């Protein structure tokens, strides 16, 4: 939870064998994929990564830290920097 409760970060997974999807929730926009938000804000994400989870976020939501697996299934940490406006706030 960040920005005084205006942003909620998490991970959802439709089923056990489905890939996890890191998400951001806002009251106005509902649940939106963090990957979609990053792409919409001109952040180039590495191809062939399996995005796993959001681990932490800064108090204002502009820094997001999480984990992903590469093609060799090696766990990697990612850090995204986004403007607050990326969330539609």
* Rg from Cα: 13 Å
The 3D shape can be described as globular
The run of helices and strands is: EEEHEEE
Calculate the terminal CA-CA distance, rounded to whole Å: 15 Å
* Fraction of residues in helix: under 10%
- Give a quick account of the main beta sheet: strands, pairing sense, barrel closure: 3 strands, antiparallel
Helix tally equals 1
Arithmetic mean pLDDT? 92
The overall strand count is 6
Unreliable runs:
none
Strand order of the largest sheet: 1-2-3
Strand content: 35-45%
Structural class: mainly beta
Structure description:
The chain has one helix spanning about 35-40, and strands at about 10, 20-25, 30-35, 50-55, 65-70, 75-80. The strands form two sheets. A three-stranded antiparallel sheet has the order 1-2-3. A three-stranded antiparallel sheet has the order 4-5-6, with no helix packed on it. Helix content is about 10%, strand content about 40%. A hairpin with a 3-residue loop joins strand 2 (about 20-25) and strand 3. The longest helix is centred in the middle third of the chain and has 7 residues, at about 35-40. It has about 90 residues and is mainly β. It is globular and about 35 Å long.
List keywords for this structure.
mainly beta; three-stranded antiparallel sheet; 89 residues; 1 helix; single chain
Annotate the secondary structure layout.
Layout: E1 8-12, E2 21-26, E3 30-33, H1 34-40, E4 50-57, E5 63-69, E6 75-81
Antiparallel strand pairs: 1-2, 2-3, 4-5, 5-6
